[in-house]
Amino acid sequence: MERSTIQKQAVLEYLKGVKTHPSAEIIFSAVRKKLPTISHGTIYRILNTLKQKGEIIEVAKEPARFDADTSPHAHFVCQDCGKIYDVFDKNISLINKKTKIGKVQNFQIYLYGQCRKCGN
Ligand SMILES: [Zn+2]
Ligand SMILES: [Zn+2]
Predict the structure, then answer these.
(1) Which ligand is nearest to the CA of 81?
(2) Which ligand is nearest to the CA of 86?
(3) Percentage of residues in the chain with pLDDT exceeding 90?
(4) How far is the CA of 20 from the centre of ligand 2 (A)?
(5) CA–CA distance, 35 with 22 (Å, rounded to integer)
(6) CA of 94 to the centre of ligand 1 (A)
(7) Which helix (H) or strand (E) covers residue 74, if one does?
(8) How many A from CA of 23 to the centre of ligand 1?
(9) CATH no. for residue 23?
């Protein structure tokens, strides 16, 4: 297998195995354990390619975080610990359909609050 394919697969495999929506930095240190020679730049390039192909989605900004789950879901952002949780709800899938204005290609919904571990 080509080196770039192996690298791409390692990134995708790691992302598919976590639910934490890791940043590029975290993905880099995780993948480096498996592929010690991989560079920072390569990780960013792979993430960009995967994003453009629709195999992963970018969640949040500064720093960007990534998600290999591309099914319709919202994200709950805890304002205390910064964790991002997946929220699946059938109403969310309904939003991801045709609207009067046009067909929805993708969407992002963020819910902000305190997660159970942090609050009440
Ligand atoms: Zn929290
Ligand atoms: Zn998610």
Answers:
(1) 1
(2) 2
(3) 73
(4) 8
(5) 18
(6) 28
(7) strand 74-78
(8) 17
(9) 1.10.10.10
Q: How far is the CA of 18 from the centre of ligand 1 (A)?
A: 17
Would you say residue 120 lies in a domain? no
Task: Tell me the whole-structure pTM to 2 decimals.
Answer: 0.85
Question: CA torsion sign, 39 to 40 to 45 to 48?
Answer: positive
34 and 90 in one domain?
no
pLDDT in tens, 20-72: 999 999 999 999 999 999 999 999 999 999 999 999 999 987 889 999 999 88
Span from the CA of 93 to the centroid of ligand 2 (angstroms): 14
Tell me how far apart the alpha carbons of residues 56 and 53 are, in angstroms, rounded to a whole number. Answer: 8
Q: How do residues 70-93 score in pLDDT, each as one tens digit?
A: 988 999 999 999 999 999 998 887
Q: Is the N-terminal amide bond of 63 cis, ω within 30° of 0?
A: yes
Task: Find the 53 Cα to ligand 1 centroid distance in Å.
Answer: 31
What's the domain range around 7? Answer: 3-67
Over the stretch 50-61, which tens digit does the pLDDT of each residue have?
999 999 999 987
